[in-house]
Structure formats: C-alpha cells, structure tokens
Amino acid sequence: MTDAHDTAADSSLRTTGGAPPDDGGSSATEAPIPLLEPREGIPPVVADEAALAEVIAAFAAGTGPVAVDAERASGYRYGQRAYLVQLRREGAGTALIDPVACPDLSGLGEVLSGTEWVLHAATQDLPCLREIGMVPTRLFDTELAGRLAGFPRVGLGAMVENVLGFVLEKGHSAVDWSTRPLPEPWLRYAALDVELLVDLRDALEKELERQGKLDWARQEFEAIASAPPPEPRKDPWRRTSGMHKIRRRRQMAVVRELWQTRDRIARRRDVSPGKVLSDAAIVEAALAMPANPHALGALNGFGQRVGRRQLEQWQAAVDRAKALSEDRLPQAGQPVTGPPPPRAWADKDPAAAARLSAARAGVTALAERLGMPAENLIAPDTVRRVCWEPPAVVDAESVAAAVAGHGARAWQVEQVTPVLFAALAAAPA
C-alpha cells in the first residue's frame, strides 16, 4: 500500500516550480499572474535551412528536458499535419519552426534523441511530429500526469494556472495555422504554450512523487513513447456523424460513395472534408436517395451555394451506389472482434453481465481512492474483455495474466487485479 491510495487532497496545488525569474511565483492565496509575453520575446519563425541549422545547434547544446508543441489546422486543411512546431530548452530558448518551409526536422529529432520531451496531451501531437521526422524516445506528458495526480481540469491553461499560478493567453487554439504569414498574436500564443511546460513538468513530478505515483506515470509515458503508429482506420466512412440514422445497406452504400468522393476532393484541394460537404448533407442524401441533381439540390446541405456541376458530381456518387449489386453493398455492421456492447450482455450472458457490473463498481471505487479517472486506472475495454471471457481457472495469478495480456502496464495489473479477481470470483458462473 503506497501513499497513492490517498486521494489527491489538494487539487489546487500551486507551486512556482521554476517560474520566470522576474516573477516571484505565487501562493495558493494569490491571484494568478497573466503571462503576456515570452521571457525573451517572440522569436522569429524558422523558415529556411540556415535558420534551422542554427536552431539544431542551439538545442543540441541545451540542457535538460525540451518542451515541444505543435499546431495543426484542423477544420481548415486536409489531414492532421503540423503547421507550426514550438520548442523550448534551457540554454537554447524558444524556437518557432515552420514545417511547411522546413518539412524535414529529422536532424532536430536526432540531436534531441535520448532527451526527455515534455508535451501536453502527447498522443495528439506525436502523429504529426512523426511525419516531419521528430520521434521522442523519452517523454513526459503533463496532461496525463495531471490526470494521474487527480487534477479535475487538465487542459494546459488550467494546469499552468492551478499548478504554477500563471494565466496563459487564450483564444488562438482553433485558428487556421496554415495561414501565412502567421500573425504576431498567434506567434505570441504559440511561444507561451511552451514557456512554462518544463516548469509544469517539474512541479507535477514532485506531486506525483508525493502521492507515490511517479513510477506509474513513468510506465505510462514509456508506453506512449514506445507505441507503434496506429493502424489506418478500417471503413472510416462509417464514422460519419449521424450514421445511426442509416438503416438500409443501399443507404450505407450512398454514404460510402459520397464520403469517398468528398475525401478525394478534399485531399486534392487540401481542405477539411467538412468544408467540401457536411456529414449532415451526406446522411440527408442517403436517406432521401434523390433521383436527379434537381432533387438533390432541394436537400439540406446542397442548396444555393452548390453549383450545377457540383450537384452532378454528388448525384453521380448517389447513382453509383444505387447501381451496385446486392453482393457489393456494405454489410450492416463491422465484424466484432471483442465482446458485444455491454447493453446486450444481460440477454446474451447474464453471468458475464453480473461480473461486469461488479468489476465496474470495484474499479470506480478504487479509482476514487487513488484520486484519478477510472479510465486511466485501467482501460474500460480491458475490463470488458476480462469479464466477458474470464480465465478458465479464476485466481489472482490468472487474472493478472489476463489483464497484462490486454496491454495493461505493470502498475495497473498490480492495482486492478485484486478488484477484478474479487468481481470474477463473486459473480455466478
């Protein structure tokens, strides 16, 4: 039993943690201090190979962890590529790099190999960083650290305010970062995002150590850093918003054809698919099954701003779906590789439903005692799989092996095994 079994009592923890030298930090009773300017000012944007070489040399000579962030243009451009990369390291200062002008940052990634990277919500940025040659071997995720430490609000702004006592500028997170040149207020915002990231990391490390959770966090960070790139999603068109309204396979084929046509156009034009055609319009067309462009144009999402040529293009997609033979229509559902939805358990396997109910209650209670979200204590899918197909012989060792077999880290296996064993052993066979 460790100190981690005490819930994080002080969720408003605030420590200077290495605050800017001109500011004395703050105590828990002081008002947060607005952080309006980077301490060395806004650095120039690195947009050529010569400037990039200088940054690489500076960061190679720096010391300690490196704060890393990336800005994307979600909702504006196709895909999730990075349009600005921000870094900060002791001895190197802050760098803002344009990955459009400098698309290969593998040289920077190489000199930072072995250095701990500090990111906030690392899994959001790692895919776009990987595309430009930046892959960490060690990392510290301040958002995940906040979750494990029991903070109720783990956004970067909330964490910096609650932990360090500074208020970050807000308002530019959802802008079109593909804009060139980037406006100065946006660059200030981007530089401030990494200004205190290492300070936040240091303070959270101390808090995790106080709670007895630092080794747990390190295991989580290692799992993120060593995880392979995710597999491409199968049948991504099935995630069209409003898909639950579609019942017939022929209608599903219309959704698929319209989605794939939209995706090709969006990729070619380098714009967000939603700016080409909305999900709502795709579902509307699938439900209506229009006979011609005139009927299509009368539907929501295909109104006055859609020209005749575009209407013909969308109608052609609808017609292709209509012309498909039955054997080429999409199946009503994707093949299920795991347990059925929990709502169906009571009918399919009442004993499994009882196991799951007991396991969920136990995991929730343990998570509350540990002061962290239940989903960070153990993946809900792991709980479902173990409860649906428990070991043939239920004992602590077999349950631990089952949990580990589904990818749980050692600390999770240690904490959760007694709870799951109790649920499996108590439930009817």
Q: How would you portray this structure in words?
A:
The chain is of the alpha/beta class and 429 residues long. It is 48% helix and 9% strand. It has helices at residues 49-61, 106-111, 122-131, 142-149, 156-164, 184-195, 197-211, 214-226, 249-269, 273-276, 279-288, 293-297, 308-323, 345-348, 350-370, 374-377, 380-388, 396-405, 410-426, and strands spanning 33-35, 45-46, 63-72, 82-90, 93-97, 116-119, 138-141, 166-168. It has a six-stranded mixed β-sheet with strand order 2-5-4-3-6-7, with helices on both faces. Strands 1-8 form a two-stranded parallel ribbon. Strand 6, helix 3 (122-131) and strand 7 (138-141) form a beta-alpha-beta unit. Helix 9 (249-269) packs antiparallel against helix 11, helix 15 (350-370) packs across helix 19 (410-426) and helix 18 (396-405) crosses helix 19 (410-426). The longest helix is centred in the middle third of the chain and has 21 residues, at 249-269. It is flat and about 65 Å long.
List keywords for this structure.
flat, 48% helix, alpha/beta, 429 residues, single chain, 9% strand
Secondary structure topology:
Layout: E1 33-35, E2 45-46, H1 49-61, E3 63-72, E4 82-90, E5 93-97, H2 106-111, E6 116-119, H3 122-131, E7 138-141, H4 142-149, H5 156-164, E8 166-168, H6 184-195, H7 197-211, H8 214-226, H9 249-269, H10 273-276, H11 279-288, H12 293-297, H13 308-323, H14 345-348, H15 350-370, H16 374-377, H17 380-388, H18 396-405, H19 410-426
Parallel strand pairs: 1-8, 2-5, 3-6, 6-7
Antiparallel strand pairs: 3-4, 4-5
Helix pairs in contact: 4-7, 5-7, 9-11, 9-13, 15-17, 15-19, 18-19
